[in-house]
Amino acid sequence: MIATPPCPECRSTITYPTGQSQMCAECGHEWNPDEVVAEETGLVVKDANGNVLQDGDDVVMIKDLQVKGAPKALKAGTKVRGIRLVEGDHNIDCRIDGFGAMALKSEFVKKA
Hints:
Blueprint: E1 15-18, E2 21-24, E3 30-31, H1 33-40, E4 45-46, E5 52-53, E6 59-61, E7 79-80, E8 84-85, E9 92-96, E10 100-104, E11 109-111
Antiparallel strand pairs: 1-2, 2-3, 4-5, 6-7, 6-11, 8-9, 9-10
């Protein structure tokens, strides 16, 4: 008998394949096993173009962003060096010359 992966929602072992995905017989949750494996391996952050970012990468701003309390905006094309990935809505912590420590959303940057 082939072992099927447990349901990521209810942890039930009563699951079955449905083409490219898996289905739970108890709670009805359907998922792609490949995506669940990727999620379990850790934090995956992608830039605006879909490239996977890692700690220490350099990124470039793709959009002008207003900074609350600052007299000027962060301009598109600003290079940010040595990012650090964190959990949450603003998933990039960095230091920007002229602005200091910032938290950015990955959807507004691209990998340099």
